[in-house]
Design a protein that fits this description.
- The chain has helices at 2-7, 14-21, 25-33, 38-56, 63-72, 79-88.
- By secondary structure, the protein is mainly α.
- The mean pLDDT is 92.
Length: 100
């Protein structure tokens, strides 16, 4: 809802949209100026590392190998988190074609 308000601030007032959407104006401003959480910042950093590793290994690493690589680089992260980040960022591996 708050994203909608933010996207349409040029068309209508925040107060009017908040009333129609039944949310508070203060809630919108809290959302807008809230500091990004540490977990989200770490996710972004991990995604960048995953992209770098994918590029280095020609997208041949799936989440199990990626998890091991990140662990070797000193990141404390679970295998499930790595799999989720790769899935959400569409960073899957390229499967070898069976030519036989």
């Amino acid at each position: 809802m708050f994203q909608f308000i933010d996207d349409n601030r040029n068309q209508w007032t925040v107060q009017k949209m908040a009333k129609v959407l039944e949310v508070s104006v203060s809630g919108y401003y809290s959302w807008k100026y809230r500091e990004e959480r540490a977990h989200s910042r770490m996710d972004k950093a991990l995604i960048e590392q995953i992209r770098e590793i994918q590029k280095l290994h020609k997208r041949r690493y799936g989440s199990p190998r990626m998890y091991e690589e990140l662990k070797d680089r000193g990141y404390r992260v679970s295998s499930k988190r790595v799999a989720r980040l790769m899935r959400e960022a569409h960073l899957g591996c390229v499967h070898k074609r069976n030519t036989g």
